[in-house]
Design brief:
Number of domains of chain A: 1
Oligomer: heterodimer
Distance between the termini of chain A: 44 Å
Strand order of the largest sheet of chain B: 1-2
Number of helices of chain A: 12
Number of strands of chain A: 11
CATH architecture of chain A: 3-Layer(aba) Sandwich
Strand content of chain B: under 5%
Radius of gyration of chain B: 24 Å
Structural class of chain A: alpha/beta
Structural class of chain B: mainly alpha
CATH class of chain A: Alpha Beta
Number of strands of chain B: 4
Largest interface: A-B, 96 and 99 residues
Distance between the termini of chain B: 30 Å
Largest sheet of chain A: 9 strands, mixed
């Protein structure tokens, strides 16, 4: 893999040294217009949760009606007796219990046998393509950057990657986004009326080379826009209790942005440690898959509780992961890199309580090189949400050549 | 693995911070390219790239020795006296400890060895005189990355640093690669220890090819074949490397031009080592390693001519690393690359401590703890990168609004001595930086910038720095100026905040 070209957009800017490249990129993906475009973007806030390392959708949304599942995973398949919801075909892993009320309430759904067109089992190639989401094209921007650009929103905090100071590749491109470790840590030391550090920095970076100036000036705008948020300690609503995990803290800060109406249109957040080659474990507390999935569920449940039904009516959360895992378990009671996977969807506009899929089965002849086949492109699922919930028309300028899925997994925004 | 996120909560940075309420978007403009901010001086250029930051002492020495003389000296690190750094490292004994020692001193899954190794890495980058060794070790720790902290390597990660990376950093890559393949840390991090002949675990086999050697040129069948070939390389109950023939999958393999009968279980280790040698000497590995080295030391967009030249040097010298470094730092492509790299958060912090002339704390490790935790917040604490691909090495991967603010905050914290407060500061910081006070504020900022950043700032930036003190470049300055002492740390911080200092 090339760790070099993946950061292509800004890297090129630096090397070529200027606004010309940025201006050129700004021309990409600006032809699709939205019903809700402009400062007054009123579509759903789209929250993209990346499950890094290769999420095992076959454990989370287990195909309990498929006998080949149990043949392939003699020691780690989810027993039928352990599922907490679902139908005879698919069952929810017990670690999803914190989200069960949302499932029963119709605001949490899953899609199975989802994947990328590329068959790569490389984490790095798969993540790069998942975030670019434009196979077969020369586009080098991240898809969430293109989505954000099309909303027309110019608010300083319209696009936020929360939980990490590093820039997020899914937002890579000309539309301004802000990545931050947390809202409270996003601040400038020493600033006072006597020592106007921010003003000095603004002056210094006004004529700096573009690649150096862009983050400095974006910091300037975002600092100003986030002053009111830091002014008081955040109190989650509805007695929501976030777990003390990186994901819990990041979702808490996203809820804080959403509730303060700063104009958040798109957000990215990460959850790690899904690369379970070894000891994925039984579906009980203290086991790897159970614990990671439970922590994730707790954080998402707290987020939904904090926003409440009215807040969640304007928010859609989608999970993505670079690939699913091998159908058959390995010698380490884990699963190696696979292909087809499950996505989870949360939101007031989601038609939940069910698993959407065109199930290819796990019969040996139906597998893709040993893995679950991907019968639905993950981009078409997001595309259906962009159209129904975010006011998008044709998807070409976000996901070239992709048509939306027609599962009916989300209600049209009223 | 796999997330950009770190595992442990970072400790809060205790500083006085006030959000800027009066900020407005300034009009973006492009006055100059990065290369225009730095002088063409090749000695200063070499030290910005091959060390963790120039200091007056290293500049004087390199000027005396010249480029080749300096490289000769640095490529024989054992001959360089490093008493002060060695003494500091005695406070961190677990950073260099072998597996048995860590196991005898710590409870299972203790994080203490990780902590000491992380702090020792910061200490060496800032205060070791063996700077080229340290930048090279940093590079190869990233190539053959084993995250610290990460599950299961609590006892072996320090030994891996010593016996795999440091031992071979100026040796051959083939030896380093084979040492990594037979080290419990790598076999644990990438799961080969639990791979079996009946159900091979593919994690290590894939990343060995994709990340450590040839790159993304393998097929899925080759991953499966390599995983079979590597079965048996595992870890004993005592935590040591062992080869277990009973776990090895026999049978002929063909991977990336490597052919082996792999006929017996007893011969499986030798077959695996032959495969590792094949990978190390593969032309695709040469190109890939050369590319990564050029990206690290020369430019984010690596000149193809230099990559080709280094790949050939690597192959011609039996995968030896020192000849590559020598060829790189004496190449015309390197000479022409002034201003083409931007400091990572780690490089910015180490360069700041070095240029300010801050010395280690008198005892204990509180300041090292603080420096390490500042890097945790920035996402760039040494070895603390969860996935096996290592930290990204290009500017765009680090260029974020948050990173900018953290960088500025670190500069002010260190310039004022607010945090960490334990580092030993020059008795008179102003005198140590500018021995003779000039007659104007503009000349003072010029002198500070020459000393701290190696060159004066553009006039508009000098004026911006002075605005924090309410002064103009022409404002007169004398030793009786009562406002100078209060302004000085802010002026220093802003000089370090300038675009000029952000370039490596």
């Amino acid at each position: 893999m090339s760790g070099i070209s993946r950061r292509g957009v800004l890297g090129r800017t630096l090397a070529v040294g200027g606004g010309a490249v940025l201006a050129g990129l700004a021309g990409e993906g600006l032809s699709t217009r939205l019903a809700y475009a402009g400062e007054g973007y009123t579509g759903d806030t789209l929250v993209v949760l990346s499950l890094r390392g290769g999420f095992d959708g076959l454990s989370a949304i287990a195909p309990i009606g498929d006998t080949d599942y149990y043949k392939a995973r003699p020691s780690i398949a989810l027993p039928k007796s352990a599922v907490i919801a679902g139908d005879g075909t698919f069952g929810l892993h017990p670690a999803l219990a914190p989200l069960l009320p949302l499932w029963n309430d119709g605001r949490f759904a899953a899609v199975q046998a989802v994947g990328q067109p590329s068959p790569t089992r490389s984490h790095f190639a798969a993540m790069e393509e998942m975030e670019r989401a434009a196979a077969g094209t020369s586009l080098r921007t991240g898809w969430l950057d293109r989505m954000l650009g099309l909303t027309g929103s110019t608010a300083p905090l319209a696009g936020v990657a929360m939980g990490n100071a590093m820039p997020s590749r899914i937002f890579g491109g000309p539309t301004g986004d802000v990545s931050m470790a947390s809202i409270d840590d996003f601040k400038l030391a020493g600033e006072s009326s006597k020592r106007p550090m921010a003003a000095a920095l603004r002056r210094m970076y006004a004529d700096a080379p573009a690649a150096l100036a862009a983050p400095a000036l974006a910091a300037d705008r975002a600092l100003t826009a986030s002053v009111p948020l830091r002014a008081e300690k955040y109190a989650p609503a509805n007695n929501a209790i976030y777990p003390a995990t990186p994901l819990g803290e990041a979702l808490r800060d996203l809820a804080r942005l959403i509730r303060s109406n700063v104009g958040l249109a798109a957000a990215a957040v990460d959850s790690g440690d899904w690369d379970m080659h070894e000891a994925l474990g039984a579906a009980v507390k203290g086991q790897r898959m159970y614990d990671n999935l439970y922590d994730t569920s707790l954080a998402l449940a707290a987020f939904a509780a904090d926003l409440g039904p009215d807040g969640m009516a304007k928010v859609t959360v989608v999970t993505i992961s670079e690939f699913g895992r091998r159908v058959g378990e390995n010698g380490s009671k884990g699963v190696d890199h696979g292909h087809g996977n499950a996505m989870m969807l949360l939101g007031g506009g989601i038609r939940g309580g069910k698993v959407y899929t065109r199930w290819p089965t796990l019969a040996p002849g139906a597998l893709a090189d040993g893995d679950l086949a991907a019968t639905t492109d993950y981009r078409s699922v997001i595309g259906e949400i962009l159209q129904k919930r975010c006011g998008f028309g044709a998807l070409d300028d976000v996901f070239p050549t992709i048509t939306p899925s027609s599962f009916g997994l989300a209600a049209a925004r009223s | 693995m796999t997330t950009r996120r770190t595992v442990l909560a970072a400790s809060a940075v205790a500083v006085s911070t006030v959000a800027a309420a009066d900020l407005l978007l300034a009009a973006p403009a492009v006055a100059a390219g990065p290369a225009d901010l730095l002088p063409a001086d090749q000695i200063a250029h070499l030290l910005r790239r091959a060390t963790f930051g120039a200091t007056p002492a290293t500049l004087a020495e390199a000027t005396k020795l010249g480029v080749n003389g300096w490289l000769d000296q640095q490529l024989s690190p054992a001959k360089i006296s490093d008493a002060a750094c060695d003494s500091l490292l005695t406070r961190l004994p677990l950073a260099g400890a072998d597996i048995a020692t860590v196991r005898s001193k710590l409870k299972v899954h203790s994080y203490d060895a990780f902590k000491e190794l992380g702090r020792a890495t910061v200490a060496r980058a800032v205060w070791s005189n063996r700077q080229l060794l340290e930048t090279t070790v940093n590079f190869f720790n990233n190539v053959l990355h084993v995250a610290a902290p990460s599950a299961g390597v609590w006892d072996s990660r320090s030994d891996y640093d010593q016996q795999v990376i440091r031992k071979h950093a100026l040796g051959t890559f083939a030896d380093m690669l084979k040492a990594s393949a037979r080290h419990p840390a790598m076999l644990t991090y990438l799961d080969n220890r639990s791979s079996t002949k009946a159900h091979p675990n593919e994690n290590y086999a894939r990343e060995l090819m994709e990340l450590h050697t040839v790159g993304l040129v393998y097929t899925e069948d080759e991953v499966k074949a390599a995983a079979r070939l590597l079965t048996g390389l595992t870890v004993s109950s005592a935590g040591a490397y062992t080869y277990t023939a009973a776990k090895h999958a026999t049978g002929a393999v063909s991977v990336l031009g490597f052919q082996h009968a792999n006929a017996t279980a007893e011969g499986g280790e030798a077959a695996a080592l032959a495969f590792l040698d094949h990978l190390a000497k593969h032309p695709a590995t040469a190109t890939r390693l050369a590319t990564r080295m050029v990206v690290r030391f020369v430019a984010d967009e690596p000149p193809a001519t230099l990559v080709a030249k280094l790949a050939q040097v690597y192959l011609d010298n039996g995968t030896a690393i020192a000849p590559m470094l020598r060829a790189l730092f004496t190449s015309p492509e390197f000479a022409a690359s002034v201003g083409q790299k931007v400091r990572t958060p780690f490089e910015d912090l180490t360069a700041t401590v070095r240029t300010l002339g801050l010395a280690p704390e008198k005892d204990g490790t509180k300041a090292l703890d603080a420096l390490y935790n500042m890097l945790v917040d920035a996402g760039n604490a040494p070895l603390r990168w969860a996935p096996p691909n290592g930290f990204p090495d290009v500017a765009a991967a680090w260029a974020s609004p948050s990173a900018f603010l953290m960088r500025c905050n670190s500069h002010l914290n260190l310039a004022t001595g607010w945090y960490p407060s334990q580092l030993v500061r020059p008795a008179d910081l102003l005198k140590s930086l500018v021995p003779v006070l000039p007659g104007t504020y503009g000349a003072l900022v010029d002198a500070l910038a020459r000393r701290l950043a190696g060159t004066t700032l553009p006039a508009t930036h000098t004026a911006a720095v002075l605005s924090v003190a309410g002064k103009l470049p022409t404002s007169p300055l004398s030793s009786s100026d009562k406002s100078l002492a209060g302004s000085l740390p802010y002026l220093i911080a802003l000089v370090l905040d300038a675009p000029t200092f952000s370039l490596r």
